[in-house]
C-alpha cells in the first residue's frame, strides 16, 4: 500500500499537452463510446479521466516514500509499451508520465498490452486490495468507467434516476454479461422492430414508386392578421433542403389568389444556381413575415396563435380528414432503390392521410386509458414541463406537458415501443429490457417536434443539440423504420456496439444517493474523484425529465426510476439538487441561491473527506468561467476540510460549440488535486501568503503557457496553484488577528495574475505600474491588453469571434425572444471577469464606458476600432490633419488627440478623391474635448488612417510617435500579437507597423 505522505504522480507533474490533445480528439469519436449509449450532459472525456486516475493512483518514484516494489514493477513493465526502463528515479517518473500520455489515446483504450500494464502497475501500488474509486456525482459515468478499466473497484452514485440507470447499464449490466449481451440486444431488437413495424406500417407508408421516406420536413404555421390577407404563414428559418455543392436543393414559392378566399402559398422543389435564388426565411426572433402581403406578425401574436395550437406541431384536420391548419408538411426526404443520395418531393394526400390515421390511433389510446379509470401512467407523458428562462422557452408557445413536444405519429410510435419493451417475457433477462429502454430514449431524442433537418449532412439533429429546449419553427420527423439516421434499427445498433466494445471489465457498484449524505462508511475510498455540478450552469434534473417520463413507461416500477425523497414527485428529484437554482426559475427555486449551492457543496466535500482513507487522494474537476462559480466551488472545498496539492488544466471542451460562444464555458477543465487537510493544520500568516503568491503564480503561468494554455483558461488554471498556498492552513490571519476570507484572497490572486499577464504582454515597463511610477501605459491600454489576453483560447486561435458566423446547423435555434446575435462588433467578456482584473490594477471602468468599452446586461464589449472614428476625428473633412499630427508632440504632451487647433476643430480625415469612408457616424459618442490623448487613442487613430488610405497623415503620425517615445510601438506590437489572426484590427496594425520608418 502507498505509505501515508507519499506524493502521487499527479501532485508533482502531468502531461498536460498530450492528454489535452487526446481529450479534444475524443469529441469526434462515436463507435463504442459512452456518448452513443445515452445522452448525458457535460460528460467528461475518457482520455482525461483515465490519465488523471493513473496520476492519482501512481506514487511519485522520486518521493523517498515511494514503495520499492512499485518502482521495480514499473521498470519491468514500462519497456513493453515503449516507455523506457527508468534507470534513475527521475527517468522512471518520465517513463510513467509518457505511459499516461500514450494511454490517453482512444485507439489504445482497449489495447490488451496497455490494459495489462496499467492494471499491473495499479496492483503494484495497491498490493493488498484493489483501490476503491468513489464518484458521488457520477452523471455520465466517465470516471467510474475508467476506474474499472484500470482494475479498480468503483462506487458510483448520483441523485438523478436517469443517470443512475445509465450508470447501472454501463458499470454493472454490460460488464456482468459480456459480449453476449450485445448479440442478445440485436436479437431482441430485431424482434421488437418487426412487431412495431407490423403495428405501425400504415403510419409510415412507402411511396407508390417504391421510394422509402426517411424524413418528413414540417413547419409550424400561423395566420396573417392583416385585414385584407389572412394567408397561412409557414414558419421557416430557411428554404434550403440540401446545401451539398454537387446537388443543391431548396424550396421556392408562388402565391395563388382565388376570389373570396385568402391567398395561398404553393411550394416547389428546385435546384438553385446561387444563394440569391433561395428566398429568405419567414421567421426571425419570433417575428413572422407573410409571404403573400409582407405584413410582419409580432412575437406576441405568433405566441398567441401557437398557444391555441398547443405548440403547433400537429396538423389540424376537419371531420373528413382534410388539412385545414396546424403544422404544414413542406417536403418529404426519400431514398430510391438503386439510386444514391437523398431525394426531395412535395407532400401528397397519402402523407397527410397517414398523419390523420396516427391522430385517430392516438385518440383511441387515450380513450381506452380514460375508460379504464386512468389506471397507471397516462400512455403519453402528461407530466408538467416548466418554463425556465434561457433553458425551456417552449411553454410560452403552448407546450406545457412533456407529451406536447411530440407529434401524434411520434407519440404513437414511442408509446408502442415503450409497451413492447414493457411486455417482454418475464423470463427474459432484465438487463436486455434496461438496455432497450435506453434505446427508446435515444429514439425520443431524435424524434420530437424540436429536431431539425441539417441541410449540410442531410440528416436529422437530436432534440438536445444543446442544454436547452428552444422553440424550433421548421422541424424534421424521422421515419423510424427507414435505413437512415434516427431510425429504430440504428438506435439498437448504437447501443449494441457500445455493449460489445466496453465489456472487458469486472462490474462496479451503482447506487442512487445524495452526495451530501453518502452511503459509504468512514475511510473507505482510496481515491475520491468527481466532476461536481457547477453553479447554475446546467439544470440536469429538469433536462433529464425528457427521458425520465419515457423510462417510467418502458420500465414501470423499476427501483431506480423514482424520487427516493418524495414518493409523490412524478419527475426526477429537484429539492436536493444543488444546481437547480432560482437563476432558472425564481418561483420554483426561490430559496436556491449562491449560499444554498455553497452549503450543498460544502456538505458534499465534507462527506468526501469522511469516506476517503487517511492515505487517500482526491480530484475535483471544474470548467466554469464565472467568478461566482469558482468562488462557490472553492468555498465549499475549503470549508469541507480539503487542501489543494496540484492543479492541471486539460483541454476537454469545444470552444466552437454554442455554449462556449454564448456563456461562461472554458476550453479546459481544471483538475484540482486535493488531500484531506489535517485537523491540526496551522494558522497561516497573511503577509507570508502574499509574499509566496506572485512567484507561485508566475512560475505556473510560465509552465502553462509552455503547454499551450491561453487566456481565460490560464486565468482559472492559476487559481488552483494559488489555492495550494491558502488551503494548507486551517485559516489565514493578518498581523492584527483578523481572519482573511477566501474572497479577499481570490481578489489578490486576480491582481497577481493580471499584473503578471500585463508584464508578459506589455513588457517589463509595466512593472513600474505597481508603484505608480512613470513609464507604464495608460489605463485604456492596459484594459485593452488584458481584455484581448483573456480572450485568447487554448485551442490555438487568439480572441473571440469578431464577426461570428451563423451557428452550426444543429445548434442554430435559440430562445427566439433573445436579442439578435452578431449585431455588434468587437469582443466580449463577462463583466465580473473584467471587474476582477480592473479594480486591483487601478482601472476605473466607468470612466472608459462608451470610450473603449460598452457594458450591457452583465457583458462588457470592447469597442471595435472602427467605432471610435467619431471620437478621434472631428466631423468636417479636409486634409489638414497631417500637419497637425506632425506638430502635436512639440505643442504639449497633454494635448488631446485632434483637439481644437487655433480655435477650429481639426478636420475629419477623408479619402484623397473626396469620397468619405466613415466607419461610424461621427458624433454618436460624446467625447470630452479636454481629455488628454492616450497612447491607445493615437494608436487607434493611426489604424483608422491606415484603413482610409491616408498615407501622408499616417507617416506624419508615426514620425511624431517615434519622437515622443517607445510606448506607441510597444503597444502596437503587443496588440498585434493579441488580436485574432485574420481580424481587421490585426491586419491594420500589421500594415501600419510595416509603414514605421526604420
TrEMBL record:
Family matches, as Gene3D superfamilies: Vaccinia Virus protein VP39 (3.40.50.150)
Listed SUPFAM superfamilies: S-adenosyl-L-methionine-dependent methyltransferases (SSF53335)
Highest taxon, organism lineage: Bacteria
GO molecular function: methyltransferase activity
GO terms, biological process: methylation
Region annotated Disordered, chain positions: 794-823
A Pfam family annotated for this UniProt entry: DUF1156
Record's keyword annotation contains Iron: no
Record's keyword terms, sorted: Methyltransferase, Transferase
DUF1156 domain location: 14-67
Record's compositionally biased regions (Acidic residues): 803-817
Name by which UniProt lists this protein: Adenine-specific DNA methylase containing a Zn-ribbon
Protein species of origin: Chthonomonas calidirosea (strain DSM 23976 / ICMP 18418 / T49)
Phylogenetic classification of the source organism: Bacteria, Bacillati, Armatimonadota, Chthonomonadia, Chthonomonadales
Amino acid at each position: 500500500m502507498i505509505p501515508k505522505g507519499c506524493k502521487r504522480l499527479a501532485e508533482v507533474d502531468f502531461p498536460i499537452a498530450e492528454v489535452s490533445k487526446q481529450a479534444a480528439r475524443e469529441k469526434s469519436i462515436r463507435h463504442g463510446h459512452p456518448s452513443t449509449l445515452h445522452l448525458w450532459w457535460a460528460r467528461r472525456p475518457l482520455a482525461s479521466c483515465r490519465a488523471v486516475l493513473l496520476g492519482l493512483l501512481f506514487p511519485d518514484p522520486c518521493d523517498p516514500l515511494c514503495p520499492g516494489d512499485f518502482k521495480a514493477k514499473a521498470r519491468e513493465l514500462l519497456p513493453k509499451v515503449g516507455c523506457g526502463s527508468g534507470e534513475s528515479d527521475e527517468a522512471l517518473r518520465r517513463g510513467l508520465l509518457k505511459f499516461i500520455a500514450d494511454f490517453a489515446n482512444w485507439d489504445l483504450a482497449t489495447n490488451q498490452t496497455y490494459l495489462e500494464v496499467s492494471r499491473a502497475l495499479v496492483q503494484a501500488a495497491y498490493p493488498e486490495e484493489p483501490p476503491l474509486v468513489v464518484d458521488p456525482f457520477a452523471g455520465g459515468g466517465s470516471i467510474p468507467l475508467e476506474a474499472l478499466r484500470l482494475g479498480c473497484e468503483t462506487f458510483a452514485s448520483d441523485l438523478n434516476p436517469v443517470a443512475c440507470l445509465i450508470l447501472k447499464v454501463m458499470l454493472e449490466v454490460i460488464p456482468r454479461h459480456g459480449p453476449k449481451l450485445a448479440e442478445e440486444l440485436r436479437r431482441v431488437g430485431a424482434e421488437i422492430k418487426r412487431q412495431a413495424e407490423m403495428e405501425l406500417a400504415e403510419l409510415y407508408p412507402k411511396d407508390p414508386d417504391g421510394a422509402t421516406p426517411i424524413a418528413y420536413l414540417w413547419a409550424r404555421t400561423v395566420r396573417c392578421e392583416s385585414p385584407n390577407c389572412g394567408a397561412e404563414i409557414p414558419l421557416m428559418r430557411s428554404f434550403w433542403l440540401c446545401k451539398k455543392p454537387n446537388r443543391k436543393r431548396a424550396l421556392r414559392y408562388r402565391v395563388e389568389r382565388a376570389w373570396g378566399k385568402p391567398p395561398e402559398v404553393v411550394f416547389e422543389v428546385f435546384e438553385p444556381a446561387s444563394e440569391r435564388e433561395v428566398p429568405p426565411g419567414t421567421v426571425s426572433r419570433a417575428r413572422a413575415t407573410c409571404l403573400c402581403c409582407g405584413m410582419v406578425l409580432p412575437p406576441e401574436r405568433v405566441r398567441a396563435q401557437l398557444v391555441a395550437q398547443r405548440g403547433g406541431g400537429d396538423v389540424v384536420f376537419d371531420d373528413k380528414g382534410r388539412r385545414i391548419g396546424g403544422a404544414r408538411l413542406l417536403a418529404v426526404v426519400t431514398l430510391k432503390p438503386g439510386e444514391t443520395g437523398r431525394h426531395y418531393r412535395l407532400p401528397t394526400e397519402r402523407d397527410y392521410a397517414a398523419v390523420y390515421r396516427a391522430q385517430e390511433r392516438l385518440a383511441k389510446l387515450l380513450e381506452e386509458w380514460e375508460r379504464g379509470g386512468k389506471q397507471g401512467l397516462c400512455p403519453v407523458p402528461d407530466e408538467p414541463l416548466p418554463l425556465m428562462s434561457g433553458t425551456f422557452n417552449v411553454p410560452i408557445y403552448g407546450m406545457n406537458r412533456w407529451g406536447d413536444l411530440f407529434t401524434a405519429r411520434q407519440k404513437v410510435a414511442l408509446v408502442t415501443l415503450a409497451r413492447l419493451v414493457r411486455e417482454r417475457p418475464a423470463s427474459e433477462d432484465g438487463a436486455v429490457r434496461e438496455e432497450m429502454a435506453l434505446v427508446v430514449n435515444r429514439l425520443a431524442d431524435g424524434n420530437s417536434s424540436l429536431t431539425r433537418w441539417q441541410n449540410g449532412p442531410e440528416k436529422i439533429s437530436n432534440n438536445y443539440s444543446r442544454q436547452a429546449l428552444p422553440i424550433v419553427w421548421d422541424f424534421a420527423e424521422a421515419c423510424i423504420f427507414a435505413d437512415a439516421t434516427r431510425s429504430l434499427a440504428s438506435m439498437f445498433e448504437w447501443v449494441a456496439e457500445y455493449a460489445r466494445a466496453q465489456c472487458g471489465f469486472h462490474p462496479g457498484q451503482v447506487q442512487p444517493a445524495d452526495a451530501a449524505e453518502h452511503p459509504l462508511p468512514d475511510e473507505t475510498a482510496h481515491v475520491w474523484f468527481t466532476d461536481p455540478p457547477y453553479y447554475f450552469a446546467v439544470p440536469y434534473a429538469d433536462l433529464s425529465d425528457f427521458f425520465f417520463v419515457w423510462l417510467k413507461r418502458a420500465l414501470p416500477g423499476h427501483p431506480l426510476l423514482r424520487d427516493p425523497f418524495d414518493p409523490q414527485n412524478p419527475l426526477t428529484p429537484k429539492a436536493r439538487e444543488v444546481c437547480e437554482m432560482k437563476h432558472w426559475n425564481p418561483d420554483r427555486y426561490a430559496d436556491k441561491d449562491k449560499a444554498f449551492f455553497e452549503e450543498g457543496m460544502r456538505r458534499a466535500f465534507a462527506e468526501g473527506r469522511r469516506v476517503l482513507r487517511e492515505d487517500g487522494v482526491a480530484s475535483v474537476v471544474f470548467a466554469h468561467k464565472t467568478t461566482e462559480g469558482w468562488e462557490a466551488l472553492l468555498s465549499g472545498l475549503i470549508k469541507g476540510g480539503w487542501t489543494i496539492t496540484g492543479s492541471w488544466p486539460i483541454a476537454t471542451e469545444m470552444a466552437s460549440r454554442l455554449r462556449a460562444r454564448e456563456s461562461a464555458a472554458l476550453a479546459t477543465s481544471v483538475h484540482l488535486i486535493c488531500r484531506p487537510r489535517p485537523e491540526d493544520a496551522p494558522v497561516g500568516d497573511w503577509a507570508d501568503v502574499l509574499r509566496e503568491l506572485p512567484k507561485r503564480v508566475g512560475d505556473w503561468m510560465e509552465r502553462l503557457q509552455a503547454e499551450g494554455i491561453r487566456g481565460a483558461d490560464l486565468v482559472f488554471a492559476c487559481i488552483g496553484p494559488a489555492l495550494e498556498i491558502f488551503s494548507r492552513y486551517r485559516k489565514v490571519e493578518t498581523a492584527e488577528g483578523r481572519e482573511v476570507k477566501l474572497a479577499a484572497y481570490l481578489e489578490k490572486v486576480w491582481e497577481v495574475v493580471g499584473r503578471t499577464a500585463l508584464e508578459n504582454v506589455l513588457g517589463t515597463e509595466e512593472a513600474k505600474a505597481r508603484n505608480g511610477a512613470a513609464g507604464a501605459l495608460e489605463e485604456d491600454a492596459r484594459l485593452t491588453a488584458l481584455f484581448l489576453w483573456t480572450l485568447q483560447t487554448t485551442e490555438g486561435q487568439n480572441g473571440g469571434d469578431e464577426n461570428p458566423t451563423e451557428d452550426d446547423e444543429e445548434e442554430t435555434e435559440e430562445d427566439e425572444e433573445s436579442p439578435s446575435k452578431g449585431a455588434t462588433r468587437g469582443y466580449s467578456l463577462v463583466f465580473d471577469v473584467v471587474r476582477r482584473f480592473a479594480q486591483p490594477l487601478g482601472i476605473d471602468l466607468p470612466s472608459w464606458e462608451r470610450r473603449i468599452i460598452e457594458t450591457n446586461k452583465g457583458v462588457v464589449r470592447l469597442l471595435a476600432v472602427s467605432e471610435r472614428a467619431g471620437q478621434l476625428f472631428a466631423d468636417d473633412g479636409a486634409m489638414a490633419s497631417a500637419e497637425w499630427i506632425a506638430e502635436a508632440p512639440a505643442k504639449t504632451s497633454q494635448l488631446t488627440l485632434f483637439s481644437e487647433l487655433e480655435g477650429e476643430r481639426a478636420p475629419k480625415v477623408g479619402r484623397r478623391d473626396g469620397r468619405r469612408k466613415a466607419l461610424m457616424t461621427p458624433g454618436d459618442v460624446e467625447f470630452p474635448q479636454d481629455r488628454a490623448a492616450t497612447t491607445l487613442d493615437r494608436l487607434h487613430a493611426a489604424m483608422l488612417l491606415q484603413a482610409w488610405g491616408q498615407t501622408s497623415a499616417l507617416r506624419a503620425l508615426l514620425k511624431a510617435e517615434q519622437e515622443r517615445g517607445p510606448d506607441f510601438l510597444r503597444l502596437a506590437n503587443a496588440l498585434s500579437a493579441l488580436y485574432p489572426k485574420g481580424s481587421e484590427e490585426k491586419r491594420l496594425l500589421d500594415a501600419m507597423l510595416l509603414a514605421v520608418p526604420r
